[in-house]
Amino acid sequence: QVQVVESGGGLVQPGGSLRLSCAASGSSFSFSGSGWYRQAPGNQRDMVAEISSSGRTNYADSVKGRFTISRDNSGKIVYLQMDNLKPEDTAVYYCRVSTAWGQGTQVTVSS
Fold first, then answer.
1. Are 98 and 33 in contact (CB under 8 A)?
2. Pick from 2, 36, 48, 64: CA 20 to 30 A from residue 103's CA?
3. 37 half-sphere exposure, CB direction, 13 A CA radius
4. Rounded to 5, what percent of the chain is helix, strand, coil?
């Protein structure tokens, strides 16, 4: 069973930066891609960024040019670098590694 734990969330002012990290652990791990998703109160969970097993990336239009997803060679650690943050980026951010999900980390962008 694979477990996923996110870290790096917090409160930041508009225009600031945060880096989220996500670590997967457990046996029988087979990397098949990962991603970051977010859910604001009253909204559905939306894709923010994804990275395939080959390294190809995909971003939501709202974060293109501001967010960058990356991973280590094992695929067990996934990062989301978030720059030029905006209040509308406020949400709980969830990491997915292959088919396993984390519990989420809160990101709040406010002055």
1. yes
2. 64
3. 17
4. 5, 50, 40
